[in-house]
Each structure stands twice: as C-alpha cells, then as structure tokens.
Amino acid sequence: MNQDLLERTSARPAATRAYIVDCDVHITARSAADLYPWLPARWRQHVEAIGPHVRGGLYNQEPHPRMMARGMRADAYPEEGGPPGCSLPLLQKQHLDPNGIAFGMLIALGRGIFEERNQHFAEALSTAINDWQAERWVDQDRRLVAAIIVPQEDAEFAAAEIERRAPDARFKQILLSPKAQEPLGRKRYWPIYAAAERAGLPVAFHPAAMGGGHPSAGAGWPTYYLEEHNTFGTIMQGVLTSMIFEGVFERFPNLKVVSVEGGFTWAPSLSWRMDKHWSRLRTEVPHVPKPPSEYLRRNVWFTTQPMEETRKQAQLRDVIDWLGWDRLMFSSDYPHWDFDDPRYAFKIQLSDEERRKVFSGNAKELYGLP
Amino acid sequence: MKLPFRGAVDCDIHPAAPPMSALLPYMKEYWRDQLHNRHIDRFGFTMTSNNPLLPIHGRPDWKPKGGVPGSDMAMLLSQALDAFGTDYAICNIIHGAVALFNGDMASSILGAFNDWVAKELLPTDRRLRGSIVVSLQDPKLAVAEIERLAGNPDFVQILLPSLGEMPIGRRIYWPVFEAAARAGLPVCLHAGGLYRQAPMGNGWPSYFVEDYVTQSTGFEGALVSLLAEGVFQKFPDLTFVLAETGATWLPPFLWRQDKMWLGVRTELPWIDRIPREIICERVRLTLQPFDAPSDPTLVGRVLDHFGTDEILLFSTDYPHWHFDGEDVIPDGFSPELIRKIAIDNPYATYRRIQKPHIATPAASELSA
C-alpha cells in the first residue's frame, strides 16, 4: 500500500484530462521556525523556551503509532529533509500535476493547536498558520485554497479570527477538530458557527486532536491503531449527533458542515437511529422540531477518503443513493499513507454525471470555486 | 409485522431489578450491616443509562399501574411471552451495582442478586432463563461468581454493560472470558454504561437521546477492541451477544474493519482472516431496537448488507418501547429469515437452552 507511488505513477497513463477538486490535502511547516515571520517575539520565545503543552501523553508522536513512515507515504519525504507536506514543489510534482488537481483544499493540521492547553499560544499559532498558508502556499499556486485554522476552545477568539479572514478569498472554509473539550454542538462553540454562517463559509471537521482530554471511544482508550482509526468514524458520528440534538442547525439553518476523513457509509444508519430515538424522546429536545435525518441531509457534506469499500459494489451505491450524490466530495489525504488515487478510489462504475459531481461539482458549488 | 409462528426464543427482556430489601437475606452479615448503616439499602441502583422515567423505557401499555416497567411479573409473562407465543425468554436484568467502584461491595450485592434471580425469579415460569451479572472491578471475583453459578442450567449467559472501565477486549478481562468459555456461556454486552468516561468520544453529551444514538459507537469500540486484542482467537468457542444496540451500524463497521485490517494487519498478526468472517461467526446482535426506517424495500437492502442470516437474534426488548402492538418484526424480513432469527440462531447461540419436543413449523409452512 505504501509503495513508491512516484515511481509507479510514471508508468501510468497521464491523467491530465481530469478536472478534480481534492478536499483534503495536508501541508505542514518544516519546523516551528517556518512560522516565525508571523509569530510575535513573545511567542517565538515561547516556542523555544517552553514548547507545546498538549492534552495527551506524548507531544512529539502519536500514542497509537502509525503502521509505516509515521502515517505518511514513504515517498512523500522531501529529499532536502523535513516532514511530508512541507514542500510545495513535491506536492505539485507528486500530486497536483499528475492527478489533474484543479483545486486542492489545504488542511494544515500541524503544530497541535487543537490540543494545546495554553490558549494564548494556540491563538498565536493559529493566526501564524493562517498567514503562513495564505502566503507560502495559496499565493504560490493558484490551485490551492485554504481552511481557516481556529482553536475552538476560545470561541470568541475563533469567531474574531474567522471574521478577520472571511473577506480574504484565499480561505474557503473553517477547520475544527472533531474532538474538542466538549461535544461540538454545545453552546460554548456557537459563536464559531454564528461567524461561519455570517461569512458563508462551511465548517470542516478533520480528525486531529488525539488527546482531547477524554477517551476517544465511549468504550475507553483503545490499545491499537486499528481501534484508534475506527474512532475517526465514531467521533464524526458524535459531532453530528451533538450538533443536531443541540439544535445548532435550527439556530444556524444555513451552516454547512463538512465531515473530512470520517467515512460516510455509517451516515444512513446514524440518521435512522437518530430518527428512531428522537421519535420516542422528542419531549427532551423540543428545540429539534424536525426528524434529525433532515438536518443531516440538508446541512452536511462528506469527503471520500479513506474510500469505503463495501462487500458488494451495489451496496456502496445503496449508501450514496440514500445520502445523495450531491453530498459526497473526493479527497485524497495526500501525503498520508492511506492516500486515495483519484483514478482508483471508486471501484464502482460511476455515470459521467455522478463522476462530475463527486470529483468536482459538489465541492465547486459548496466552496464557490470558479 | 407479527411473528408468524409460535416457539420463538426472545433473547432480551427486562424484568425490573428487585428492591434491595429482597437481596439482603442473600448477603453476609458484614454487608447487610454496611448497606443498612450507610443507608445504601434505602435506594435502588438505577443506572443513568437505564432511567425508568424515559418514554423509551416503558411502552405505555406495558407499564404497570404501580412500580416501574417490568416489575409486575404476571403482566410481563402475559405481555412479553404469551402474546408472542414465546418458548423461552432471556432475562437481562439491569442492576446498577455494576457501576460501584468498590468491587467487593459490587460483588456482594450482585452475588445476592444472582441468587435472587435463580431462586425467586426464574422459578416463576419454566420459559424464563437468566443471565449472570458480574462486576469487572475485580476480574477474579467475577470469575469466582461465574464458577459458583455455572452449574445452574437456568443461567444461559454472562451479562456485562457495553461501556465499562476500559475497552472490553483488554487482557485484564481475559480470565472472565476464560471462565465463560469453560462454562459454555456466551458473554452478552448490553447497551448501557458505567459512565467512567463520556459515552461518546467527543465528551459528555447534553441529552439522553444523544446517549441512545451514540450507544452504537460504544459498541463499535467494544467490538473493535475484542477484534484487535485477539479475544476471538484466544477464546475460539466464546460467543459475544450485543444486546439492544440497533443493528444497521454493523455492515458499515464491517466494511471499514475489512479495509483497515488489510492496511494495518502487521500490527495485529494474530488476526488470521478478514474481520467480517470472524465477527459474523462469533458475534450476535439482538433485534430490537431495529434502527432502519419502516420502508420494507430499504429494510431488504440493509439486510443484504449484512451478508449473513445468522447474526440477528429475535428480541422484543420488553418493556422498552420500540414498536407498537405485536408488530415486533420489521417489514421486509422474509419468512425464512424470521425463522432463523427467532428459532435457529438463538438455539445455536444458547446451547444450554433445550428446544421443546413440540415440532416447530418448517419454513415452507410459514409463507402462508
């Protein structure tokens, strides 16, 4: 799975005819020093004298270590050093050019701002990362667009940062970790959603904060990476459950949510279960007047990677038919180990119309891309 | 729709837990004194996840005039068994003592509770079967309790809450699985939790309805833990029953595990074949609350996603309110599948339950 994709790619037919929007492209700073031009002296000093203080047992690697190359494509390490995702030329050469990526949504997870306990530090870092990705990435390649990174625990700051960036067309959405200190439908996070709705920017959730202050599964802390990886899906289910039952989509009916890298075949089942229990317990949630599945189908989009693979091909079609072909958006997760190549991600036959929607149309419409 | 025949095995019904006063006679003097002097016996052990006030926990026509749902045994026998022509029903009584931190106190109360079930509840009707309830605070005490009661054929499984102190596959719990396997008893993980941590990985939700909806994510965590830790390989004869979880979450879970395992299998060299095969052989899910819409075409497609007719076990989840009248079977289930889930699968799962000698109808007779 993690072979030398670069070499294999050269042996393949060119895919230059493709017009693809990739909704999950990861970039990271080579080191914290990359951010120094946008980080005040007080925080540059903090980086060097104190460093990260995260909600987790390890701060320089994952407590569920990845299976290979620290969760990266082994061929995505730049020759000149630094982590995968720190080199624009390599991103262009390995992914944007050969795979016909017309737009790539940057998901800059690095530097641990979602887990940082020192909120002032997290805020300074998020501002610096936003400046850095705009100037060092989006300005350098017109195919790239960025997500505004905000530390969600200080919703007031986050809302102000969103407002400040919203007029800047380089930013097309807001990025949050699905694993916050509290379930993300709770009122403390509503200023973020108010700002997002006002700015007309979708809010994307991408698995990020590994610590989060509480076990990643209701069953307790997993032992193995296989288990931890499953929580990417269950935590996304928790985000949607919380947002729907707290009434977020009643209060902010035009808010758009994107579930990135959380899977999507669970969404019909989740919707049915929500509707079933809501029908019995609606006296508890009178602020949720519609069946929960209506909010999910109205306000939520899903990205494809890691592509779901059903037992029989027709079963994947069952799932997408229920979700709606206008809700699914291609993502590659470059440069991570489980990168999906746009040519091979779907094992089912798609009609031209379905292909256009999933690989570009839905994202273009959602993000207002040209 | 209704069950089209008699003779089903109902794999999940809920008589109410007895008052503490009923358990004191089964306890040692020290614990009787402790419970009395500390006023512990004045209150029940009602789990947050089993709040009897909630509409979902008592179907309106299944609520006794006085007392909590499931507390009137005559009513239960008539409504949960007679009404469905049930041959056997497995009593999963939720006892909150499992949530105590003091493992000695928990095992004393649950020991008395299991004795009460054996001596006072199960003898009230020959169709009732019981579950041994244990606390996992001290796995050694749980093993001793299983060994103490395993000789009683009326107990047909071990009952645990689905969300415990830590993921259920952890090696610290393996002695309990070993004792269950030795006794030939399946382990049933029932919806509900100790709430040692938030019931979902996102933190504490505000509403009961969120707890209910995300129970299935807790079951995903339990199941992937059993899989990843190698419990299915270590205990090849042990069956796990997941009760009151809903069911439609399972196919997407299996698709995901199959794919992930291919990618990360070097982490778990003891998993010797594709997860779907292991789980479909070793795990069973009770029917209610069935979490698909009422459209029979859609139900048919979801059933196709399971890829097996052996995984579901019939249950009413009495007295919980998941369906009305006697329409316990979702529309879209074929007569052959109903026979599998109501008769064949339960008897294959619970080997201790002897099929009555009265002939049950063949599948061909059921289509009528």
Characterization of this structure:
The complex is a heterodimer of chains A (370) and B (368). Chain A is 37% helix and 10% strand. In chain A, strands 1-2-3-4-5-6-7-8 form an eight-stranded parallel beta sheet, sandwiched between helices. Chain A is built from twelve helices and eight strands. In chain A, strand 7, helix 11 (313-323) and strand 8 (328-329) form a beta-alpha-beta unit. The two termini of chain A are 34 Å apart. The mean pLDDT of chain B is 95. The radius of gyration of chain B is 20 Å and the shape is globular. Chain B has helices at residues 20-23, 29-37, 73-81, 103-121, 139-149, 174-183, 208-229, 231-234, 250-264, 275-282, 296-306, 335-349, 363-366; strands at 9-13, 88-91, 128-133, 155-163, 187-193, 240-243, 283-286, 312-313. Chain B contains 13 helices and eight strands. Chain B starts with 8 loop residues before the first strand and ends with a helix. In chain B, helix 4 (103-121) runs parallel beside helix 5 (139-149) and helix 5 packs parallel to helix 6 (174-183). Chain B has an eight-stranded parallel beta sheet. Classes of the chains: A alpha/beta (370), B alpha/beta (368). At the A-B interface, helix 7, helix 9 and helix 11 of A face helix 7, helix 9 and helix 11 of B.
